[in-house]
Amino acid sequence: xxxxxxxxxxxxxxxxxxxxxxxxxxxxxxxxxxxxxxxxxxxxxxxxxxxxxxxxxxxxxxxxxxxxxxxxxxxxxxxxxxxxxxxxxxxxxxxxxxxxxxxxxxxxxxxxxxxxxxxxxxxxxxxxxxxxxxxxxxxxxxxxxxxxxxxxxxxxxxxxx
Length: 161
Known about the structure:
- The protein has 161 residues and is mainly beta.
- It contains no helices and 12 strands.
- The radius of gyration is 17 Å and the shape is globular.
């Protein structure tokens, strides 16, 4: 097991912001593709960003979630879209991670939606130099939850400090 070396400060998570991303109702999943997986595509239609470190919007129709659905039901997340900060700065985000569905009859139910057993990701950002440049120099981890009526997901982002 790895320990903390003398002189190093342990990392901790600091809440940065949350996004609420709305999706078109016509999700597309096809396959099986080679390897027995299914491919998914769900376009985002917009949303909002709130939090202490970033506020703004999800640029409408700027991207989608591309999902590789494994035979065991695990979803490999690869989502791409644009954020627009309150100051007008455009920010490209790419979330990569995993969603593991809850077993039948298990998992927390929030707003009538059974939540996945695991819904975590690591985002990366491309952002112009300037006040928001720190996004492209910071490691983040995120957690998601699914919601309905309308179809959307809420993603919470934490900076690793």
